[in-house]
Amino acid sequence: MAGSALRRLMAEYKQLTLNPPEGIIAGPINEENFFEWEALITGPEGTCFEGGVFPAKLIFPPDYPLSPPKMQFTCEMFHPNIYADGRVCISILHAPGDDPMGYESSAERWSPVQSVEKILLSVVSMLAEPNDESGANVDAAKMWRENRDEFNKIAERIVRRTLGIPT
Amino acid sequence: MGDEFESDTVVASGNQDELIMQQQRQIEREISESTALVGDLEPIASLNNEYSNDVVYLEKIKDLASKYKYMRRTRPDGNCFFRAFTYAKLERLLDNKIDFANFYKIVEGSKHALVELGFPQFTVEDFYDTFIDVLKRLGDIKTATDAKKELHTLFNEQGYSDYMVVYLRLLTSGQLQRDQDFYSCFIEGERTVADFCHQEVEPMYKESDHIHIMAACAAMNTGVRVVYMDRGTSKINIEHDLPEGTQPSVHLLYRPGHYDILYL
């Protein structure tokens, strides 16, 4: 089984290298182990995360792509759909039926024809448009709803940190 | 300080949900893994053990045994329809070289059709390759008896077995999307056929309904008879041929939530 997962991950890596989606770089941290990837995601333009370069880790299960990977940002993040420890909580990372967050039934779910690229694109949309209904970080969700200026300030500070600019 | 405490509890409760889910999964897995992916032939009467004090079911098992000789159990992991259907279809095809060759051609053309529907090639490829690989291996074996043994072996190897299931799920999804005008009236609520496919057909472990069976039959150009055995008070099991009016080549036993294979 791990053989098939490896073959698929290599194909996805190749695909991402040949046709990288805008603002996203991803690949295995070490080519000896294709089950752990690092991704760099640039904050979408016109949003409070614009200009930031956010590193994240993706861990793939041995039965990938039957089951989805897990994704965790490794930099500081403050966002309604990201846990305080950086874990990303969006519907495409879950199979239908796994509903810790009560996702909308129309939301995109994991299946074997999804891909790393689809996940990363969903994460970019998530950065642009947080879903404050499914709060992985309730404080961030509340601030996003009620005090957008303050939220933007925190986002800006995080952006500067990812670039190594003093805050 | 107050804020810090709050955010800690939030994280904890998030983890809690996930832990519960993980545990649930673990329990389900343990139950389901006690059954082989596809079991050996058993006489119909082997069902009696499960219902020894149940008059309704015992009557129905009697009825079933008057029509069918054997059954083959499949693992109850949500993939049972797809696994049972593919296994039974291939097993049947091994008795007839011409039918087998025709089926091979259908499958050979199917990847292109899926890519045309918008499935990304690199996500479909591995499942298609496995399906074709299994067909080739079976086709290369001289006698039907030996080929059926190989089929049984391959379907009990998780890697092969699950990839066969995924590919049939994709073919079923493709069929639904191609004929979406027809299938859309069977989908409740606001969902489009494509949404339904992404949520109920393509993901592993999602159980199958009538609509999955209809589309899978159309995709595999196969008729199936489903024998429904439930707590209804009639002494006879209700049978349903899909598509209606066709000569079924695959026979499945349905008990609420689960499909097994039947043999005349």
Automatic annotation (TrEMBL), chain A:
InterPro entries: Ub_conjugating_enzyme (IPR050113), UBC (IPR000608), UBQ-conjugating_AS (IPR023313), UBQ-conjugating_enzyme/RWD (IPR016135). SUPFAM superfamilies: UBC-like (SSF54495). Residues 4-164 form the UBC core domain. GO terms for molecular function: ATP binding; ubiquitin conjugating enzyme activity. One of its GO terms (biological process) is ERAD pathway. Its EC number is 2.3.2.23. The active site is at residue 89. Belongs to the ubiquitin-conjugating enzyme family. Interacts with AUP1 (via C-terminus); the interaction recruits UBE2G2 to lipid droplets. Interacts with ubiquitin ligases AMFR/gp78 and RNF139/TRC8; recruitment to lipid droplets by AUP1 facilitates interaction of UBE2G2 with AMFR and RNF139, leading to sterol-induced ubiquitination of 3-hydroxy-3-methylglutaryl coenzyme A reductase and its subsequent proteasomal degradation. This is Ubiquitin-conjugating enzyme E2 G2.
TrEMBL record, chain B:
It catalyses: Thiol-dependent hydrolysis of ester, thioester, amide, peptide and isopeptide bonds formed by the C-terminal Gly of ubiquitin (a 76-residue protein attached to proteins as an intracellular targeting signal). GO terms for biological process: protein K48-linked deubiquitination; proteolysis. GO terms for molecular function: cysteine-type deubiquitinase activity; ubiquitin binding. Residues 69-264 form the OTU domain. Signal peptide: none annotated. Pfam families: Peptidase_C65. GO terms for cellular component: nucleus. It is an enzyme of class 3 (hydrolase). The active site is at 77, 80 (nucleophile), 258. The record marks 228, 230, 254, 259 as: Interacts with free ubiquitin. Belongs to the peptidase C65 family. This is ubiquitinyl hydrolase 1. It comes from Aquatica leii. The lineage of its organism: Eukaryota, Metazoa, Ecdysozoa, Arthropoda, Hexapoda.
